Amino acid sequence: MFCVVAASDGPQHPTSPHRARGADSGQAWLELAPDYERARTKEDSLDRLVEWPAQRDILGDVTGRSVLDLGCGNGGKLSELVRDGATDSVGVDISGNFLSAQLPGLELIQGDLSELDSVPGLAGRTFERILFLQSFGYAKDPVRTLQVARGMLADDGFILLTRTQPIRYALERAAKNGTSLGEEYFSTAQFSYVSGWNDEIALTKRPYTISDLINVFSAAGLWIESATEPQLSEDARRRYPHKQAWMNKNLGILIFKLRPHPGP
């Protein structure tokens, strides 16, 4: 259902065969990971201004809690959580492009989130918080990936999962193709676009709707405790009007707090 998650921090452009090339999801992330890390550290990064603050607020006090970050990038966000008191925490990313200095209580593992049950170091472990921060779209079988993650949740644990607002892609395709929002939102045809992090890489994905996401969660035995669509603060709107203009057009991300249904 989902092939590749797109950059949520910049405009996408029509694919140009002269400067873009397709890649499967794993290979694409291997090449895009360094570009993503550079992009999110910018002062006006939407990850810095909107996404991470909202994610951090939902996670709450992590003191003494174990965290599993699936698709952790270089491990920077998980490192911050460990500095805030998280313990026995693990980050998994297919790129292996990790921070050189690792904190006590933090382990970073190169592995594929599509094959969680074979990632070394995870067997038999449970975690109180499991994160899919714009990484879930890389899962080859999203239901299976969530089922495995659900099995790693400790009692009273939850999954924090984010996805780009799907209406954004429908708007872009409608403008590009001269079609309507409804036609593109409900289309099942694959589409390609150039990554906002690196204009040498084109990504291909299948569209999804909000109901697709809800159905995937349900099929994996999860229910939505809460959902939010974070926006810029008033101060950030004044300081970065170009980012507010981008958010007005592209809507941003969806954040879901997921808990397992009782029973098997």
TrEMBL record:
A Gene Ontology BP annotation from the UniProt entry: methylation
Give positions of region: Disordered: 6-25
Could you tell me the keywords of this UniProt record?
Methyltransferase, Transferase
Name this protein carries in UniProt = Class I SAM-dependent methyltransferase
Q: Drop me one GO molecular function for this one.
A: methyltransferase activity
Pfam families found in the cross-reference section: Methyltransf_23 (PF13489)
Q: Which InterPro entries match?
A: SAM-dependent_MTases_sf (IPR029063)
So where does this one cross the membrane?
A: none
**Residue ranges of coiled coil:** none
Q: Which CDD domains match?
A: AdoMet_MTases
